[in-house]
C-alpha cells in the first residue's frame, strides 16, 4: 500500500453511512392509543379510513391505505397525521410509525402537499442514462418546493427506460430536455408529457402488433388505453396527491 | 412465432372493460368451471403442470393441493407486487386485461374452495390498481364475484390492496405481513402459507401471470396445455426484456426456445451493434450469464442447468461497453436498501458488499477484497428466512467469478486514479452518496 491514503469521505455526523435513527427520548412515556374525544380528525379522512378498515377481516390491514390517505391530506406522515390515523384505527402511534418507516412511498420528512417525481435509477434505466436524468430532474425542479424528486427502486417499466413516475403517471423513454417539460406541465396542471405516457403504449410483441411496431411514439388513433374509466373511478382510492388522469383526446404538441 | 395465449389481441381498445372481454368469450371458462366439481378443476390445473410465474416456479396445481380441505376460512392472495428489477409483465396484463386475471383468480379460488381473495398491487402501479379496481366493480355487478356466483352456490369476495413501495413485499410471507398491516418482514417457513398464512389461515399465493393463465388452461384442457413448451416447463411465458436491446418490452414465448431467439430475434439485440457482455436471464436476482450462454433454451430446467434461473422471466442485457462494477454497485445498493433487516447475514452482507464495491470505486480496495466479497456472498446464501440476500449474493457472486480479471483491473485503475488526484475522488464519492446512499436519510 502506498503511504498516501485517501481521506475517507464522511457525513456530517462522522459516519460513512448516512442516516442514523434519532435517539429515543427516555424521559417521555410512550404514547398510548389516542382518545377520540380529545383528538379531532377531519371528517373526510375519518370516512376514508373507516371505509378502508371495513374491507378487511382485521382492521390493522388498513394501516397502509390509512397512512396514504393521511399523507395526501398533510403532505407527509407528520406526528399529527399519525395521531389522527391512530385515533380512528385505535392503534398506538408507535405501531403506525413502525409501519410508516418501512415503506418508501410514505414520507417521514416535513413537506407541504407536493408533486412526487420518482426517477427510476435501477439497472435497466441506469444502463440507459438514468443517473444523468436524475441529476437533470433535480436541476429542473430547482428550489421548487411543490416538486419533490427522488431516485427510486425499479418501477417496473424498463421497456420505457429511462423513465419516471410523475404523481403515479409513468412517462418514458425520457431525454434530459423532458425534465424541464415535466416541471412546466406540473406547474400548469396539465397532463405530463402526454406523448410519453406508458398508458398509451402498445405491446411490442410482433405477434400482437403484426410486426409493424417500432420503438416509437404511440399511434394516437390506436391507443391501448384505460378506456372506460371515468375520472371518478380513477381517483377513488388513489393514494397521495395525483394529477388529473384524463385521456388526451387530441394529440398535444410536445 | 410462438403461440399467443395471454397476449392474444391484448391491444384491442377497451379490453379492460367487461363488455369487450365478454364479447371475446370472457368469463365463459368461469361458467364452465362452476359446472365442474372443484376436484375436476384442480385436476385440470395439475394436468397442465403450469409452474408459478412469479420467480420460484413451483407447480400451481401442487400448491393448491397443499391447502387443507374442508369448510375452513381460507384465503387466496394474488401477488401483484411486481418489483423484481427488470420485470414488467404483470403490469401489462393488469393494465390491459384485468378481467382475465379476475376470471383466473375466481376459478383458482373455486378449485381450492376459498371464499376471501386479495390482490396485493405494488403502490407505484397506481394506474393498474385503478383499472383493476374498476374491473372488480364491474365483475361484482355482473355476478362474477360476491355471493352465490352465477347461481352456483360458490361465493368469493375480492379486495384490492395497494402497497407502499417495498421490494421485500413481493416475497410471499413479507407480502402477507404487509397485507396484515405490519412492516413487510418475511416469516419463518415452515409453517408454509398453505398451512398458516394470512390471518393465520391457510393461504394460496399466486402471481398475476399464473392466475391469468388459468382461463387458458380451462379452455385448452390441462393435458393439451401441457403439450405446449417443454416437459418440465409447460406453456407460454411472458418475457420482459430490457437494457441494451433495440426493442425492449414484453413478449410471449413458448418455453424452451433458444435465448438467442428472444434476445436477437424478438428484441433485436444491442442497438450499438456490440456483442453482449453479460445478461440476467430472470430478473436482477439471477446469476449473470455471458454471450457463451445465448443458446441455452429458455425454460426453468435449462436455465438452472446453466447455473442461473428463469426467475420472473425478466431479461436484462448489457453490451460490451458496460462496466460490471457499476452494475454490481447498483445491485448491491438496491438490495442493501431493500433488505428488511430481520436476518443478520442479509442485513450486514448486503451493506458490506455495497461498501466493498465502493472501496473498489474509490481506489481503496486490493484484489484480496474480491475473495472476501465472494466469501460474504457464500455466507448469505441459504442462511436467511427469505431469499432477498441470496438474490444479491447470486448475481454478485457470479460476477466476481466470471469477470474477475476485469474487476481486478478496475481495482488497479481506481487506485492509480485516486493516488493521482485524491481530492477529486472524494468529491465524486460524496455526490454519489448524497443522492443515493445505501440508507436514505428519512
Name the pair of protein chains with the most residues at their interface, and give those residue counts. A-B, 90 and 105 residues
Q: What is the number of helices of chain A?
A: 9
Please identify, by name, the CATH architecture of the largest domain in chain B.
3-Layer(aba) Sandwich
The SSE order of chain B reads HHHHEHHEHEHEHHEEHEEHEHHHHHH
Low-confidence stretches of chain B: 427-442
State Rg of chain B.
23 Å
* Beta-strand residue fraction of chain A: 5-15%
Give the strand order of the largest sheet of chain B, numbering strands 1, 2, ... along the chain. Answer: 6-5-9-7-8
CATH class of the largest domain in chain B: Alpha Beta
Oligomer: heterodimer
Element-by-element helix/strand order of chain A:
HHHHEHHEEEHHH
The unreliable regions of chain A are 211-254
User: Which fold name fills CATH's third level, the topology of the largest domain in chain A?
Assistant: Glutaredoxin
Outline of chain A: globular
Helix percentage of chain B:
40-55%
When the domains of chain B are counted, the total is: 3
Amino acid at each position: 500500500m502506498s503511504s498516501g491514503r485517501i481521506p475517507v469521505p464522511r457525513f456530517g455526523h462522522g459516519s460513512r453511512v448516512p442516516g442514523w435513527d434519532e435517539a429515543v427520548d427516555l424521559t417521555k412515556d410512550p404514547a398510548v392509543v389516542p382518545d377520540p374525544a380529545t383528538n379531532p380528525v377531519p371528517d373526510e379522512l375519518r370516512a376514508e379510513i373507516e371505509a378502508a378498515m371495513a374491507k378487511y377481516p382485521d382492521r390493522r390491514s388498513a394501516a397502509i391505505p390509512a397512512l396514504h390517505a393521511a399523507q395526501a391530506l398533510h403532505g407527509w406522515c407528520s406526528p399529527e397525521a399519525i395521531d389522527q390515523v391512530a385515533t380512528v384505527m385505535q392503534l398506538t402511534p408507535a405501531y403506525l410509525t413502525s409501519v410508516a418507516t418501512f415503506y418508501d412511498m410514505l414520507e417521514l420528512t416535513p413537506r407541504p402537499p407536493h408533486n412526487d417525481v420518482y426517477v427510476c435509477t435501477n439497472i435497466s434505466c441506469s444502463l440507459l442514462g438514468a443517473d444523468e436524468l436524475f441529476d437533470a430532474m433535480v436541476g429542473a425542479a430547482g428550489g421548487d418546493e411543490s416538486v419533490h424528486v427522488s431516485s427510486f427502486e425499479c418501477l417496473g417499466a424498463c421497456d420505457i427506460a429511462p423513465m419516471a413516475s410523475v404523481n403515479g403517471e409513468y412517462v418514458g423513454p425520457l431525454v434530459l430536455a423532458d425534465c424541464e417539460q415535466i416541471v412546466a406541465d406540473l406547474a400548469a396542471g396539465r397532463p405530463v408529457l402526454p406523448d410519453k405516457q406508458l398508458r398509451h403504449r402498445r405491446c411490442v410483441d410482433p405477434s400482437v402488433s403484426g410486426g409493424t411496431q417500432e420503438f416509437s411514439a404511440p399511434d394516437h388513433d390506436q391507443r391501448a388505453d384505460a378506456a372506460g374509466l371515468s375520472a371518478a373511478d380513477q381517483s377513488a382510492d388513489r393514494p397521495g396527491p395525483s394529477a388529473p388522469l384524463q385521456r388526451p383526446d387530441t394529440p398535444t404538441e410536445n | 412465432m410462438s403461440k399467443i395465449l395471454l397476449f392474444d389481441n391484448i391491444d384491442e381498445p377497451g379490453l379492460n372493460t367487461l363488455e369487450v372481454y365478454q364479447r371475446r368469450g370472457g368469463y365463459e371458462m368461469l361458467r364452465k368451471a362452476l359446472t365442474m366439481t372443484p376436484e375436476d378443476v384442480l385436476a385440470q390445473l395439475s394436468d397442465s403442470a403450469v409452474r408459478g410465474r412469479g420467480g420460484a416456479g413451483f407447480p400451481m396445481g401442487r400448491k393448491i393441493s397443499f391447502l387443507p380441505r374442508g369448510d375452513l376460512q381460507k384465503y387466496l392472495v394474488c401477488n401483484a407486487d411486481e418489483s423484481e428489477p427488470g420485470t414488467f409483465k404483470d403490469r401489462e396484463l393488469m393494465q390491459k386485461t384485468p378481467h382475465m386475471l379476475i376470471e383466473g383468480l375466481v376459478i383458482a379460488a373455486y378449485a381450492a374452495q376459498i371464499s376471501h381473495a386479495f390482490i396485493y398491487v405494488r403502490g407505484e402501479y397506481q394506474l393498474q390498481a385503478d383499472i383493476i379496481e374498476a374491473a372488480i366493480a364491474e365483475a361484482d355487478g355482473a355476478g362474477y364475484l360476491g355471493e352465490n356466483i352465477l347461481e352456483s352456490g360458490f361465493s368469493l369476495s375480492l379486495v384490492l390492496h395497494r402497497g407502499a413501495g417495498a421490494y421485500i413485499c413481493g416475497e410471499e410471507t413479507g407480502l402477507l405481513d404487509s397485507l396484515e398491516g405490519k412492516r413487510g418482514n418475511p416469516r419463518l417457513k415452515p409453517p408454509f402459507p398453505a398451512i398458516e398464512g394470512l390471518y393465520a389461515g391457510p393461504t394460496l399465493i399466486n402471481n398475476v401471470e399464473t392466475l391469468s393463465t388459468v382461463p387458458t388452461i380451462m379452455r385448452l384442457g390441462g393435458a393439451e396445455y401441457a403439450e405446449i413448451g417443454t416437459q418440465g416447463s409447460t406453456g407460454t411465458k411472458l418475457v420482459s426484456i430490457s437494457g441494451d436491446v433495440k426493442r425492449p418490452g414484453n413478449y410471449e414465448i413458448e418455453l424452451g426456445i433458444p435465448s438467442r431467439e428472444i434476445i436477437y430475434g424478438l428484441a433485436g439485440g444491442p442497438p450499438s451493434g456490440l456483442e453482449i457482455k453479460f445478461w440476467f436471464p430472470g430478473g436482477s436476482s439471477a446469476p449473470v450469464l455471458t454471450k457463451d450462454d445465448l443458446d441455452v433454451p429458455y425454460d426453468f430446467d435449462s436455465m438452472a442447468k446453466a447455473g442461473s434461473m428463469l426467475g420472473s422471466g425478466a431479461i436484462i442485457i448489457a453490451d460490451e461497453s458496460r462496466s460490471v462494477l457499476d452494475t454490481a454497485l447498483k445491485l448491491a445498493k438496491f438490495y442493501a436498501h431493500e433488505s428488511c433487516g430481520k436476518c443478520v447475514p442479509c442485513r450486514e452482507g448486503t451493506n458490506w458488499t455495497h461498501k466493498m464495491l465502493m472501496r473498489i470505486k474509490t481506489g481503496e480496495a486490493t484484489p484480496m477484497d474480491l475473495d472476501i466479497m465472494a466469501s460474504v456472498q457464500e455466507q448469505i446464501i441459504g442462511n436467511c428466512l427469505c431469499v432477498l440476500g441470496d438474490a444479491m449474493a447470486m448475481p454478485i457472486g457470479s460476477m466476481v467469478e466470471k469477470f474477475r480479471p476485469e474487476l481486478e483491473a478496475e481495482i488497479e485503475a481506481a487506485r492509480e486514479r485516486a493516488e493521482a488526484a485524491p481530492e477529486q475522488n472524494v468529491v465524486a464519492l460524496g455526490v454519489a452518496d448524497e443522492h443515493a446512499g445505501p440508507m436514505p436519510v428519512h
